[in-house]
């Protein structure tokens, strides 16, 4: 199967009964608890931040459901499981001043960002007919919540 796929998945079955009076694995003395805060240095390293940069960590449960994770809870308490999506950003301080040029909007909140992605619609403008001199083509990115009138009065600058 591995030659037909990009990854090889291995599964391990643990035998709880001894075979020939020998146990397969030594008994587990205690549970290993992994806290959400334990992944902060790993996330920082991946983004080339200093090791203990303060982060806000979220779980994407589904496209419109993004929940902030408490770093003092374990993965089990946070219900983090195999295949769950974790997203994060630096904690922003009052000392950081944000400048957003009028042509670009910067989103600094992960749930708002995911909401905008979910509500985003791209409209493509192309000529209906072929012309000897090519006509320009362009795309316009809008939010599904905005009406035609919102766009006319300039409200779409919030996208």
Automatic annotation (TrEMBL):
One of its GO terms (molecular function) is peptidase activity. The keyword Isomerase does not apply. InterPro entries: USP7_ICP0-binding_dom. GO terms for biological process: proteolysis. The keyword Hydrolase applies. Residues 36-150 form the Ubiquitin carboxyl-terminal hydrolase 7 ICP0-binding domain. Keywords: Hydrolase, Protease, Ubl conjugation pathway. It holds the Pfam family USP7_ICP0_bdg. It comes from the Eukaryota. This is Putative ubiquitin-specific processing protease 21. It comes from Gigaspora margarita.
